[in-house]
Amino acid sequence: MTAVMYLQKTKAGRTLKLCSFSVLLLTLLLCAMNVSAQQVGEIIGKVTGPDGAPLDNVSIQAKGDVLPKPRTATSKANGSYRLQLLPPGNYDVTFTAASGETQTVSVAVLLEQKTPLNMQLGADDPERIVVYGSKLTTSTNAALGNALSADTLAQLPMAVEYSSLIRLMPGVQVTSDSVRGPSAGASGQDNGYKFDGANLSVPLFGILASSPSTHDIAHVSVERGGARAVGFNRNAGVTLNTESKSGTDEWKGDVTYRVQKGSWQAEDQDGLKTEDDIGFVTAGVGGPIIPEQLYFYGSYYTRDDSKESGSNSRGQLPDITNEREEYFGKFTWTPTEDILINASYRNSEVTSANQDIEDDNPASTAVDGIEEFEVIVFDGSWLINDDTSLNISYADTTQSTGSFPVTNLGFRGQAGESLNVSDLASQGYFTVPSLETQVATTPEEQALLDTYNAGAAALIAAYGVNGQALGSVGAAGTVNDNRYLGNTFEISLDHVIDTDTMTHEIHIGYQEEEGSEELFRVSNGWGTIAYWGGLDNEEGVIAAPNGDPVPVDTVYRATVQTRGFDAGGLTGPLVSSSKSKTIAVNDTIYWDDFIFDVGFLLSQDELIGQGLRSADTSSGYEEARGNTYVMKKVGFSETFQPRLTATWEYSDTASGYVSFARYNPAVSSLARAASWDRNTGGSTTYAYFDGAGNYLDSQTNVSSTGKLFADDLSPRTMQEFIIGHQMQWNNNWTIRNHVRYRRSWNYWEDTNNNSRIVYDAEDYQGRVAGLAELYPNLVARANAGQFGSPGPSELYIPVNNLIGEGTYVIAQLAGAYTKYYEASTEIDFKSENFFSTTSVVWSHYYGNFDQDGTTRFDNDQGTFIGSSNIADSWYGQLWGSFTDGKMRADRTWQVKSYGAYQLPWDASLGYLAYWQSGHTWAHQWASTYYLEPRGSRRTPSHWQLDVNYTQDFEFLNDYSLQLRLDVFNVFDKQTGYNPEPRYSNEDLGEYRSYENPRRIQATVSLKFF
Fold first, then answer.
1. Of the four, 230, 453, 531, 689, which is 20 to 30 A from 549 by CA?
2. What is the pLDDT of residue 472?
3. CB atoms within 10 A of CB 449
4. DSSP 710
5. How far is residue 963's CA from residue 378's CA, in Å, rounded to a whole number?
6. Could you give the dihedral angle defined by the CA atoms of residues 406, 407, 409 and 410, in that order, rounded to the nearest 10 degrees?
7. Beta strand ranges found along 615-653 (DSSP E)
8. ω into residue 792 within 30 of 0, thus cis?
């Protein structure tokens, strides 16, 4: 299949999906299906009379701005009531007694939160509920959670992208990484990101690649620990969820323009100042299509951060463009008071042109890119009665990424075809060679060097820059087209049982989730081309190719993608997928002053790859290119995840709690990394040519290999204990404290089948002997035999028809672990004009398995989970060098505070301030080989202040103009991080990344209501 055909198929699929969405939405609207996951909140409380005695049969009605029909409930004999499954928003709650007496109170319901509201009817001075800020704590259970509303977010300094929400969350570390998320005693790939309950994480990889705009986010919540068996939370890190804006009972809209001008940005650490302006335009409108029944909300967002053309050593360059458009539409329907339906569709597309032109390359080497993100969500609920509710939800996401050479060479190199050496720029991406400076020791070696340099000199003259060996010419060598597909179905039943002494909230849920990747990668022309000039470069010595494996007379080598290369025998995309099923059971028990959560999750995971089929062989498989097979299945019996909490509300304003939770994270890249088709065909193929361009031979590069799984693998596990306390003081203050312990083990990783045999203590002694002068402690420990492999010293998998002793396999690394300790204090303050949340966190994160430290010295990558550099070769084993120590994400202290003050002249002043310790690092030889104790060094701590000023002007009764100014990093603290760790690099210890300089964002909005 050609790239063009594949793209046409992709576009057709998108069109079909959009049509399917329309048909399904119409079906829903006509047939009143009930569809939701936990994209709601709840109001709970008790109704009492003047004497404090409970009142039953009191009618309670909640009328909300985002709920078309009111929701009603009736108080029970003990005075308790519940208004369930309320979309987050503002509500007027009216209590009507049998006598006809009424009392109305306004409250805010936040995402995934229970809002307590007790009412005393008939009193001389009825209880009044006044909300000055936003409730930030999860009530009635021991989860570490927080929630914010759109009104609160609007008063705080905020960037445009979804990822900026994480910076606001109390107790969550701030990271400047653009790919990997923050850590809370787990990897940066262990987090969960949701939009309207749909999973935004890249399937199989656990990172946030698509980042929707925040302009139509109405509510956000975060759960960073203490999860109950409600909501199917298997994430070992932080789970961030958002709820989009909905239509309301009035037509409202806004048009907004934001700009970040390059001239407003401070000079960066290198003394450079950007002149690039970034403009954002958003528009949104919503209101009732059918009053008190069907609401609609829609929005549009566009961003343009294109750059004017410049020049490099090759001359003038074309304009670099980067444009984004995003559309969103949402229907909210209540066909009856007891049924709520939401259906939404979002499409975001980023197109770029003339990207990735390096300083010494011509414009012809540029690529155009496209990134598209689509999400369809149906969610809703059915209140069967006051005690029972049914929820169903479905979410479907598609993330497409592609990079396409701007110069299409019009052919794809194949076995037997020649290379046009007279015009290498028309053949692929050719890198200009340098002259060879090795010193010959024999006349034969000198002759080889002379021949090599003569050819190199001619190529430098033809393709270099002003006679220098700089850059590359031709065209980008690879066409990439990836699609990540995810879908989730959830159904749950909630039932309340009241007895004379206690109340049970029973939750039973079932979830099916599937994530897959379609990877299509072919070469443009001959891909990338290198000059060998008659030297065997892979040997690293002055020698001519001898045919093993490089053919005699090799002068050029091309690296082509195996897919699309006839000799590779592979066509179409490489498809990998994972499927998960999860059962959730939870009982929340209210007994006197105690609340207990007793629940568990059970999960089943399947990893599905390509390239094998079942057979009567010693491994149980035989090779079958393109064939789909289940490479590993983890059953329900292996993933019992208990969730237990106990809360003692020992006064009206204070409570203490304890929590225990176990998580078996589902995300794993092994479906792709271990897929056997990566072995039988390899990802790339080498093609060899002589000096005239005649084809000599080809050879598969099997550096990326498929793997088999060892027997008796237990799923990765994270276990957590929390002890906490929270109290309200003086009506304005809320104080929360907790201590937490987390431990993770049962890590899966690819490694050599014989690594426990050949990479032992004696092996390490010989390999590190030359480092005695620089790193004497390392050599001393190696000589003392402290780097010996753990028992048993045997193969992970017996040799069979597919693998040998040194073949890479997936194994459970003995002794792999991480531990995390945390102590935290959070303080909320609320008054009529001011609110703030301040958190102080001490933590310690250590172990010997660091997923964040395996990315070839660059932390900010979405690496394979289960197939990283850990346990690769002799230097990557857990028992080697100083692998036990502090994790890269260990930051001892973190202080964060945010809030806003309402000024008397219809304006607000908001702020976000934080200070945190730097990350750890150490001198290394390779990315997983430490020359000194892991984490023995630390980058500088960083502090930053962001501020926001918002001014509103109302006119003509129905319109308002809002002017807003956000200043990020007010004091321009460009703290360095990500130092060069390689001891042999002349830049050892130099910072390669810096916090962003001060920048300013101006916003003007016109609103009507």
1. 453
2. 95
3. 20
4. P
5. 35
6. 50
7. 621-634, 641-651
8. yes
State how far Cα 524 lies from the chain centre.
31
Note the Cα 464 to chain centre separation in Å: 41
Residue type, position 718, single letter: M
Tokens of 257: 């323009």
Token pair recorded at residue 887: 């994790």
Q: Which two tokens stand for residue 733?
A: 């203050």
Closest CA to 330 of 232, 218, 200, 484: 218
Residue 197, token pair as written in the block: 């309950």
Residues of the chain with pLDDT under 50: 1-37, 126-140
Give CA–CA dist 433/447, Å, rounded.
18
- Identity of residue 575: V
Q: Do the strands 684-689 and 733-745 form a parallel or antiparallel pair, or are they unpaired?
A: unpaired
**640-671 CB burial, b ≥16 within 10 A, e <16:** ebebbbbbebeeeeebbbbbebbbbbbbbbbb
Q: Do residues 84 and 389 lie in contact, with contact meaning Cβ atoms separated by under 8 Å?
A: yes
pTM for the model stands at: 0.86
Residue that has been written with the tokens 């290999």 in this structure: 705
What are the start-end ranges of the E strands in 386-527?
388-405, 429-431, 472-474, 478-498, 502-523
The string of DSSP letters for 597-610 reads EEEEEEEEEEEEEE
**pLDDT by residue (tens digit) across 373-389?**
999 999 889 999 888 99
Tokens linked to 852: 């964040």
Asked, as a colleague might, if the bond just before 549 is cis with ω within 30 of 0, I would say yes
The answer to whether the beta carbons of residues 468 and 435 sit under 8 Å apart is no
Residue with tokens 């402290």, as numbered in its chain: 786
Contact indicator for 855, 913 with CB cutoff of 8 Å: no
Contact 897, 839 (CB under 8 A): yes
Cβ atoms within 10 Å of 979's Cβ, excluding its own:
19
Q: How remote is the C-alpha of 414 from its chain's centroid? A: 38
Residues 250 and 260 sit within 8 Å (Cβ to Cβ) = no
Quick one: which of 53, 101, 115 has its CA closest to 78? 53
